[in-house]
Amino acid sequence: MEETSREAVATAVQRVAGMLQRSDQLDKVEQYRRREARKKASVEARLKAAIQSQLDGVRTGLTQLHTALLDVKDIQSSLANVSKDWRQSINTIENLKDVKDAVVQHSQLAAAVENLKNIFSVPEIVLETQQLTEQGELLQAHRKLMELECSRDDLMYEQYRMDSKNTSDMNLISIYFEDVQRLSDELAKQLWMVLQRSMVTVRRDPTMLVSVVRIIEREEKLDRRMVDRKKQTGFIPPGRPKHWKDKMFQVLEGTVSTRIEGTQAVTREADKMWLVRLLEITRKYVLDDLIVVKNLMVQCFPPHYNTFNRFFSLYHNAVSTRVKELAWEDLEANEIVSLLTWVLNTYKSVEMMGHPDLCSEFDINQLEPLLPQEVVDNLLSKYVKTFTSNITGWLRKALETDKKDWLKETEPEADQDGYYQTTLPAIVFQMFEQNLQVAAQIDGDFKEQVLKLCLKQMNSFLMRYREEVVVYKEEHLRDRQLPQCYIQYMIAIVNNCQTFKESINSLKRKYSQALDPFDSDAAIERTLGEVVKEGCQFLLDEVFLDLESHLNELLTRKWLAGSHAVDTICVTVEDYFNDFNKVKKPFNQDMTNEALRRVVVEYLKAVMQKRITFKNADERKEGAERMIKEAEQFKFLFKKLAAGEDTDRLCGSITAIAEVFKLTDPTLLFLEVTTLVSKYPDIREDHIQALLAVRGDASREMRQMIIGTLSENKVSYSGTTQPIFKDITVPTITTTMTSMTSMATAKLLK
């Protein structure tokens, strides 16, 4: 207490010190004193009120405890009196057992009297219930059935209570009410029939469906009541619980399954499009039925049934089961695509489960996939295998058809620009296009896979195409009169390669998002290049086969005497190139340049073969002037045919050699040869020797001096231009004799 007083004084001192920190605050001392006095009086009043309240509570509590003590004593006294009276009345209760039995018997007799009317009227009620059931008055029939079941169950229960071991009486009751179970079964059949036709019933007579649901709900309540009574008494009537609600859902599930399974109207034998028709019918049925469920059937069932979601799941499961069955059938490639497109795209689209009328009721993203990924992968693998086999056969058949066209006596068709072509590229890429369009409907990754497969097959096809072109050329060489349009179809083959290339690039742009090149791109490019190169070579070979005899006349005595071989060569080349105008660019340009080069090389070969040796200066001059004139003819012709910039250089090689022949002063021969070598550094020593041999006036010493000097001051070939003399061989004496013998033999045979 003293410590509390000290703390109070210390606190008061601090407060006073806080109030009187400045001299001007001394004038307010009286004001501070009155304020503190009011506070003290307020605190004391609150303390007194609190203490008084606590004292009042304690007083009330003591009063209640005293009252409770008195009540406990009264109860204790009453219990003692009750216990005394109970002990005294035990004998009296035992004497009332007969009364108790009489009461029980009276209760049973009262129940029997109460049900007597129903018992005697059972046959009549059974007949009436039968008629109501047959007439479709299901609610009335069920009410009568409930009356019968109630009478039977009450009698059985009373018998069970009286003597649960008396089975004979139980059997007697069961036999008397045996028609009740039959009526229950017949009514159930009627209910299941209505449920099986629920989609039709809900449109025509929804009240019938509502009645069925009400009956089932009543039976569910009775089932629960009987189960609860069994827990209490151990008795349950026969046929309970009926579980009609569970049976209802089973019937609805079976109805949905039957609805989906019954959509197949035709088979593959009757209609190739059987699967497309089946899937479309299924789509229409499911969509129409679910819209009916949403708009009509939901109103016929209690809300807690969650009717729409239940039916949505039933249809999904039924469709999934049916689709799995279809997936295990031996489907063709187009059928696999139809099935997967429907499963992966159509099913969740706005055309079916994603329809606007259904989306508001159910989230389709919560649906399980119709087909497991493993099954989808197996179908895709099967499709790829079948597609590979089919496309190989299609390409083979297309090539065989194109080969037959090569033998026709009519020219191939021309495109809008006038270039020859066959139908092969269009047929091939139409097949690719169709299959890629189908693959695109399934999945983007699968589309890329099919595109890669198409390109791989394309490469194999082009290799076979190349082989067939070679065979076509070889068969033509056996009889050059056949086929009649060999040139035109070989041109079409070359043009086809360009079309193939353009179509491949078009397919990749349209169906591929990949930035990196495909594995088969390089092989396809290489094979196409080889086919084009060989095709152009075969065309030029055809030209030079016709020119062979005229090329053999060059630089011979007949040529020097005034042969028209070069005129014929130019006319023939121009005539052929009128046909070669049907070759697409840039191949026609390449062929023109190659033809010029081959003509010049053949001309130079004629010089190097030393078919003639000039006897005097006049022959050399005449031969040189003729060579210069013919070089100009070649230049004019090939410029007319739009040859490349190398025309002057190639034709100039003939002119340069002519200048060597034309030279009249032998002492200047070295200078002229040096000029020739500087222009064409790929010319070799054996070429110079052949030229000097054809000239005919160069002594052995002069030839050795020219060759030796050129060897010492050999000009290196830079390789910036394509060599001319590199592949020209100079025949030896033996080769020359053999060639002359062959030419003589050929003339004799002619």
UniProtKB/TrEMBL annotation:
GO terms for cellular component: exocyst; Golgi apparatus; growth cone; membrane; midbody; perinuclear region of cytoplasm. GO terms for biological process: exocyst localization; exocytosis; protein transport. InterPro entries: EXOC3/Sec6 (IPR010326), EXOC3/Sec6_C (IPR042532). Pfam families: Sec6. It comes from the Eukaryota. It is found in: Cell projection, Growth cone; Cytoplasm, Perinuclear region; Golgi apparatus; Midbody. Keywords: Acetylation, Cell projection, Cytoplasm, Exocytosis, Golgi apparatus, Protein transport, Transport. GO terms for molecular function: SNARE binding. Belongs to the SEC6 family. PANTHER family: EXOCYST COMPLEX COMPONENT 3, EXOCYST COMPLEX COMPONENT SEC6-RELATED. Component of the exocyst complex involved in the docking of exocytic vesicles with fusion sites on the plasma membrane. The exocyst complex is composed of EXOC1, EXOC2, EXOC3, EXOC4, EXOC5, EXOC6, EXOC7 and EXOC8. Interacts with EXOC3L1. Interacts with BIRC6/bruce. Interacts with MYRIP. Interacts with SLC6A9. This is Exocyst complex component 3. It comes from Xiphophorus maculatus.
